[in-house]
Amino acid sequence: MKQVLSIILGGGAGTRLYPLTKLRAKPAVPLASKYRLIDIPVSNCINSEIYKIYVLTQFNSASLNRHLSRSYTFSGFSEGFVEVLAAQQTPENPNWFQGTADAVRQYLWLFLEWDVDEYLILSGDHLYRMDYREFIQRHRDTNADITISVVPMDDRRASDFGLMKIDDSGRVVDFSEKPKGDALKAMQVDTTVLGLSPEEAKQNPYIASMGIYVFKREALLKLLKEAPERTDFGKEIIPASSEKYNVQAYLFKGYWEDIGTIEAFYEANMALTQQPRPPFSFYDEGAPIYTRPRYLPPTKLLDCTIKESIIAEGCLLKDCSITHSVLGVRTRVESGCVIEDTMIMGADFYQPLTERDSGSGCTSDKVPLGIGKDTTIRRAIVDKNARIGCNVQIINKDHVQEAERENLGFFIRSGIVVVIKGATIPDGMII
To answer: Across the strands, what pairs with 258?
Structure first.
């Protein structure tokens, strides 16, 4: 794998994940109580013995830079690195990244400095565990110019993905990016060619791109230079290359979830608490997911009832009930609270004890960091460093599906209440 360079696309402004992306890049969004989205593709690369990793981003990259620099440091005797490349103006190109292909094109001069045979292009907002060595070996065995990792897809979600048709050898013969209506129906195929049973093929009649590609060095160079007006891999580069180039499909058989929306992000995190076996596990010692070491104290539970939940280190929970929820680092929950079907991202720091005590009895004008006494939270995402007062009810009592209340410290997306980073929800407020 020394001849492979990995390029992780950090995505655009992350509007579908807003307000979680208000103050951070999409790959820096917290995941599963202690990780960040970017940890998934980076860990997959490391576990696949791919150590040359670039991350392309252009929005709110400060926290992403900080996380990567604190998390991934390779030996001085290797060429390994994880480096963020932000969009920049140059005399040749004064523009921001115009798309996924344009982002790679603008830094092609840097990528070409490495003596590698293949470029592995990944997305920064997917949850999955994959051995890229098998993927790249398939690419080499078929002498492909481009290999696309694919999954079978059902009718409900198919229009959100790039869809393709393949021949008996696995070569892509037709490609359509996010088709709708009749164009969508035209992309139906018999997915038994992927090894699915007739029943499974009936439920999943489409072959969807995961947005994960391997390019032969010469093919990527030629495709990016011959048509500079093509700015996106999925919409333009891949569809235009299927006729002239050997484009192969590689079937991925494991769990994979695109978590580019608030609802998908919420459901993916909640699924991690499932029993007896969640769809994705962080307990695989053979392929661990790495992140930043924080050296926090262990979590302390004082007379709590906790069911089907994930709780990170450094938390302090008092006489509360927590069910089917994910609690991030340094989360503090006071007595009498009920937390259900909720993701609380925790805090970046501990509040001084004197200031903390001043608000614990619900008599201070200052709402302390964490969740105040006798508060109920259901089906919500509470971003980092939020201050939620006493006797608050975050329950979406009117079953609102979409709302923007940034001045009050929250949004509602797909019926999920999202408390924004650093927001203050005063005592007694009902959402």
So the answer is: 126
Q: What is residue 67's predicted lDDT score, i.e. its pLDDT?
A: 92
Q: Kindly report the CA angle at 227 between 223 and 228, in degrees rounded to 5?
A: 105
For the chain, 431 residues long, the average pLDDT of each consecutive 10-residue run is 91 82 90 95 97 87 87 85 78 68 88 94 94 96 94 89 87 88 90 83 91 95 88 86 90 90 95 90 94 94 96 96 97 96 96 62 79 96 96 94 94 96 95 93
SS3 100: helix
The β-bridge relationship of strands 206-216 and 146-153 is antiparallel
- DSSP state letters, 11-29: -SS-GGGTTTTSSS-GGGS
Put simply, whether the predicted model's pTM sits higher than 0.70 gets the answer yes
Helix ranges (DSSP H) in 118-257: 132-141, 181-185, 198-203, 217-226, 238-241
Spell out the alpha helix ranges (H) of 78-216: 100-106, 108-111, 132-141, 181-185, 198-203
How high is the pLDDT of residue 226? Answer: 86
Alpha carbon separation from 158 to 15, 151, 196, 223, 366 (Å, rounded): 21, 11, 17, 27, 48
Which ranges constitute the DSSP H helices of 186-307? 198-203, 217-226, 238-241, 262-271
How big is the chain, counted in residues?
431
Cα–Cα dist 276/138, whole Å: 34
Give me the pLDDT at residue 38, please.
Answer: 95
Q: Is the dihedral of CA 162, 23, 266, 285 positive or negative?
A: positive
Q: Rounded to 5 degrees, what angle do the CA atoms 374, 361, 381 make?
A: 40
Find all residues with CB under 8 Å of 25, minimum gap 6, and list them.
Answer: 10, 11, 14, 57, 59, 60, 61, 63, 64
